[in-house]
Amino acid sequence: MATLIRIGNSQGIRIPKAVIEQARLEDKQLEFKIIDDGLLIQPVKKNREGWKEQFDKALKSQEPNEADQAWLDAPLVNEEDWEW
Question: Minimal CA–CA distance to 39: which of 48, 47, 30, 28?
């Protein structure tokens, strides 16, 4: 349970440490969203956060076919193909 308290010209709430830990909000920037039932507080998510982990997980869950493997094994740069 929390109540609004005066902080300068604004108002705020104190969030109990146990709630902060359980919600994993410690040392994170927070964003607020107005919802039908009140206010939602959640950590700010960075663009593409977690994409690498999801991509790696997807790769591990499937065996690449022959065409996929050719692309995965291809060198990133092949200077022989460049015309100067």
Answer: 30
